[in-house]
Design brief:
Two copies of one chain form a homodimer. Chain A contains 22 helices and three strands. Chain A is mainly alpha-helical.
C-alpha cells in the first residue's frame, strides 16, 4: 500500500499505510477499507462489552467496564474523524463515479462519506458534553423513576434538550429542527412524513381500540399463566428459533433483564430473552422479536464484513424485521398450528387448550400505561404520544414542568387509561435521559413497514401461511435475505425499502388493513366500518 | 493537563493532552497515567475477547474474533511504544527520584520504563513476523499432533527458533541467550539460577519417584471415579471456592475445555474449569488452582487499577498462588476434614469413604507421559525435561529432527515411562508453536516458591491447618493479600519474593522437604534416607 517517495503526509500512528498524494485509486480504496475495518472492530468489541455487561459480568466489573466502553468509543470516533479519512473520501470521488452505484465499493465510499460529514460537523467539546450529561441524566432518571418524582429529572431533561438544540445548530438548517434528530436514527426521513403517517395511523387505531375495548371480555388469556419452569421455556423457545434460522454454530440465547439482540460479527449473533416462571408469553414472543433482529444482521452479505455496511439499513427497517417475526409470523394462527402441539408436549397443563383459544389469548388487546408491555394494536399510540411531545418540547410549546400532566391527559385520550404515577407515566422510558430524542418513531415505522414487506412476500409466495403451519419458515427467511438483509447498510432506508417492496414510500395502508382484519376477526367486530 | 503556549509537539490523535515541554512533573505523571490507563483498557478488553472466545462464543465468531484481537493488540502496542511515552518517562526521572521507591507513583514510572525499554527494542517488522509465524505454526502443530507426525511441525519449529534468535539479537547480550527469553516470563531470573534450582530438584525427585513407584499399590484412587453429575460437581466446586474467597459479586465460574483464570478488572474475576461426569478430581482441583490465580489478581490494591501494575508480579509468582491453593491447601488432609462430609452429602456413593483413603487417593503418584495430567510429585520432571531441551535447541546441540527420539529417551530416564507416540510426547504442548520458549520453567518456579510462602505463612500462623479443618481460609488469604497480592506488579519478582518470605532467593529446600514428608508418609517410605 505504501508507494511514492515525495509528497507524503506524516504517517499517523496506527500501523496505517501512509496516505501519499500519488496513491492509485485502488490503493486509496484499500487504505480507506483498512481504516474502516479497524473502526468496525472497535465497534463490534464495544457490542461485546455491552452484551457481556448485560448478560455475564459480575457487578464488580461495572466501573472498569464504563472506562473500557468509553475508551473504545473515543478511539473509534477519533480514528473515523481523522482528516486523512476525509481526504481519502474526497480523492475517491472519481473512483466512486466510475463504479456501479450498487457495487459494494461505491456504496462503501458513499455511505462512509455521509457518515463522515455528519460526524465532523459536531465539535469534540459538544460530544464530550453530551456524553457527560447523558451519564448524569441517566442516573437522575433512575433516581427520579425509583422515587416517582419527575422534579428530580426535570433539570437534566432541560440540559439534554439544550444540548440537542446546540447539536441541531451544528448542521445546515433543515425543514424543521426535529429532522436533524430523526436523521440520526432513520436517515433521510423527514419529520413531515412521519407526522403524516402517524396521523393516518392514529385516525385508524384510536377508534379501533375503542371498539375492541367495548368487547374486552371476548378474549381470555388465562391459559398463558400458570407453572412454566424456566428450563422448559428455554428449550421451547430454542425449538421455535431453530425453525426460524437459529443454529448453535452461529447463535446464542441467554437470559437477561432487558432483552436485546447483539452480535460480534455477521456469523456470531447473540439473542437475549426474559423468562417469567408463571407467564409463558414474554420469553416466547421476546425471543421471536430478537430473532428477527438477529436474522437481519446474520443475513448481511459476507462481502460487507468488517465495514460500516455490515448492519441493518436503519432502526426502522430493523424493527420491521423484529415485528414481522414476532407479530405477523409469531402471533399468526398458522404458525401455532405447528408450535402449539410442541408447547403442549413441553407443558402438560396446556394439553386441552385449543388453537382458537390460544390464538386469541396471544393477541389479546389490553390498553395499559407501559409501552414495552403494550399489545400489537395499542403499541403505536404510545409511540405517537412520545413523538408529538418531543416536537413540542423542542419547539418550546410545552413547558417541561407540565410534562407529567400533559402525558397523563393524552394517555387518557388515546388509550383511555389513568396513569397512576410518573414512574408508570412520563418517566417509564430511559431514552430521553440518554439523549435519544427522535428515536421512538422508528418503532412504529418498523411496524408499518413490516406489513408492507409481508404483503409483498405473501404476494410472491402465497402459500407462506401453509408453510408456517408445517413449521417451515425457510422460504420467508430466504426471501427476506435476498430482498433486504443481504444489502446491509449499502443503501439509504428509502432505497432499501424500494428494493424490498418496489416503492420508496412508507405506506400505512397494509398495516392498518392487517390490524383491522386481525382484530375485527378476533373481537368479532362489524367488518365494514373499519375496512373502509 | 494542557498548559504552556510555546514549544508544543504536535498533538497525537487520541484525545491525549498535548505533551508540552513546560509541563510540570505532576502534569507529566498524570499524562503518563492517562495513556497507560487507555492501554490497560485495551489489554483488559483483549482478556475479555479471549475469555468470551473460550467460554461463550459460537464457532461462527472465530474469524472476526481473530481480527478484533489483532486490532486490540496492535493498538496497545502502538500506543505504548509512541515516542511521547519514552519522553515522558525520561522527563519524569527527577520526579521519580523524589518519591519513595515503594510509592505507587515511583513504581509505576520504574516498571513502565523497564517495559518500554523492552518493547521498543523489537522492531515492528519482527513482531509482525513472529505473529504471522505463530499463527501458521499453531495450525501446523495442531495438524501434526492430530496425525502424530512430528515432521509436519518440524519446519515451523525451525522458523520459530530462528525468530527467537533474531529476537534475542534485539537486546544487549546477556550471560546466556536463554536469559532473554526467560526474562519475558520471569523478569530478572537468570537461566543459571533456574538450572541450579532444577538440578537440586531433580536430584531429590527422581529417586523419590522411583521409591514411590516401587510401592505403587499402596494407594488406590478408585473412589474418585464413578457417577458424578456435572451440576452437582459445579455446586460442590462453588461451595469450596466460596470458602476460599469467591463471591457472586466479583467472580464467575464457567465450564471450558482448557481451564484458565482471567479478569476484566480487579473486581471481575473469571474462573473456568472442566467437568468429567465420571471423575471428580479434575473439576475440584482445577477450580482450586484457578481460584489461586484469581485471588492473586483480586488481591491487588485498588490504587493500581487501570495501570500496568494491576496484575501479578510474574508467571512464577502467579503459579505459586495457584499451586498453593490447589496442592498445599487443596490436597491437604486438614482441608478435607471440612470438605469430605460436604462431598459425601453431594454424592451419596461416597458415604463410606474414610478421610485417609480419600486423602491418599487425591495424592496418588502415577508417572505418565502427559504434563498437564501429572501428579504433584512428578510434575516438575516434565518441566525440567522441557527446560533442558529448550536450551539445547537454542544452542544447536540437538538436531530438531532428533527431538522425538531424545524426548522419549529422557521420559524413560526421568519418569520410567515409554511414550507411545509423538502426540503424547514431544507434540503434547502448544507453547512452542506460539513462540513461548522460556515459559515452562515458571511452572516449577511457582511450585518451589509456593512451599517457601507456605512455610512462612505457617510460621506466622501455626494454627492454619486447624483453621482449614474448620473450613476457615480467610486468615491465609488475608495474609497472602497483605504480603504478596496487594503489591501487584510494583516490584520485580525478586523484590516481591523478599516482601513475602524475607529473602529474594528462590530456595528448593522447603519444596523438597514438603514433597518428601508428604509422599514418604503416604507411601510409607523409610523417612531417614530422603529427609537427609
Amino acid at each position: 500500500m505504501t508507494r511514492g517517495t515525495g509528497g507524503e503526509i506524516p504517517e499517523s500512528r496506527h500501523g496505517w499505510g501512509r496516505v501519499a498524494v500519488d496513491m492509485s485509486s485502488d490503493e486509496r480504496y484499500l487504505e480507506l477499507k483498512k481504516r474502516l475495518a479497524t473502526i468496525h472492530d472497535l465497534s463490534k468489541v464495544s457490542a461485546l462489552l455491552s452484551w457481556d455487561q448485560s448478560v455475564m459480568m459480575p457487578p464488580g466489573g461495572a466501573a472498569a467496564r464504563a472506562e473500557q466502553m468509553a475508551t473504545m468509543g473515543r478511539m473509534a470516533h477519533e480514528l473515523f474523524t481523522a482528516p486523512e479519512v476525509g481526504r481519502l473520501l474526497d480523492e475517491l470521488r472519481p473512483f466512486e463515479a466510475s463504479l456501479p452505484y450498487d457495487s459494494d465499493e461505491a456504496s462503501l465510499i458513499r455511505v462512509t462519506r455521509a457518515d463522515y460529514e455528519k460526524a465532523v460537523n459536531v465539535p469534540a467539546s459538544l460530544r464530550g458534553e453530551m456524553t457527560r450529561v447523558a451519564s448524569l441524566a441517566r442516573n437522575a432518571w433512575a433516581d427520579a423513576r425509583a422515587n416517582k418524582d419527575f422534579a428530580r429529572f426535570l433539570p437534566y431533561l432541560q440540559q439534554t434538550l439544550d444540548l440537542k438544540k446546540r447539536y441541531i445548530d451544528c448542521f445546515p438548517p433543515a425543514a424543521e429542527p426535529y429532522d436533524i434528530l430523526l436523521d440520526d436514527f432513520e436517515r433521510g426521513m423527514p419529520t413531515a412524513d412521519v407526522r403524516g403517517l402517524f396521523s393516518s395511523l392514529k385516525a385508524a387505531i384510536v377508534p379501533l381500540t375503542a371498539r375492541v375495548a367495548n368487547r374486552a371480555d371476548a378474549v381470555d388469556d388465562r391459559v398463558l399463566y400458570g407453572d412454566f419452569p424456566v428450563d422448559r421455556q428455554r428449550a421451547f423457545c430454542l425449538s421455535v428459533l431453530r425453525r426460524f434460522g437459529f443454529s448453535d454454530a452461529q447463535w446464542r440465547l441467554d437470559p437477561t433483564a432487558h432483552p436485546f439482540a447483539s452480535n460480534t460479527c455477521i456469523t456470531d449473533i447473540r439473542l437475549t430473552t426474559r423468562y417469567y416462571p408463571d407467564f409463558i408469553a414474554p420469553s416466547v414472543f421476546g425471543s421471536m422479536h430478537e430473532c428477527g433482529h438477529g436474522l437481519y444482521e446474520q443475513g448481511v452479505s459476507l462481502s460487507l464484513e468488517r465495514t460500516p455496511l455490515a448492519r441493518g439499513a436503519s432502526l426502522g427497517l430493523h424493527e420491521s424485521q423484529s415485528r414481522l417475526w414476532e407479530n405477523i409470523v409469531g402471533r399468526s394462527r398458522e404458525a401455532w398450528r405447528c408450535f402449539l402441539p410442541e408447547l403442549q408436549a413441553a407443558f402438560p397443563q396446556m394439553a386441552d387448550v385449543d388453537l382458537e383459544t390460544f390464538y386469541r389469548a396471544i393477541n389479546k388487546v389490553q390498553p395499559g400505561f407501559i409501552r414495552v408491555e403494550a399489545d400489537e394494536l395499542t403499541y403505536s399510540l404510545h409511540v405517537i404520544l412520545r413523538f408529538e411531545l418531543e416536537q413540542e418540547m423542542l419547539a418550546g410549546t410545552v413547558r417541561l414542568e407540565d410534562l407529567p400532566e400533559i402525558w397523563n391527559a393524552r394517555m387518557k385520550a388515546y388509550l383511555g387509561v389513568d396513569v397512576p404515577d410518573d414512574a408508570q407515566g412520563v418517566l417509564q422510558d430511559v431514552h430521553w435521559s440518554l439523549g435519544y430524542v427522535g428515536y421512538f418513531p422508528t418503532y412504529v415505522i418498523g411496524s408499518v413497514v413490516s406489513a408492507q414487506i409481508w404483503e409483498k412476500a405473501r404476494a410472491a409466495m402465497p402459500d407462506l401461511p401453509a408453510q408456517f403451519a408445517h413449521g417451515e419458515f425457510t422460504a420467508l427467511r430466504e426471501w427476506l435475505r435476498e430482498h433486504l438483509h443481504q444489502h446491509g447498510r449499502k443503501f439509504t432506508p428509502r432505497e432499501t425499502l424500494k428494493k424490498v417492496v418496489g416503492t420508496d414510500r412508507i405506506d400505512v395502508g397494509p398495516y392498518v388493513q392487517y390490524l383491522t382484519t386481525k382484530f375485527s376477526e378476533i373481537y368479532a367486530l362489524a367488518p365494514a366500518r373499519t375496512a373502509s
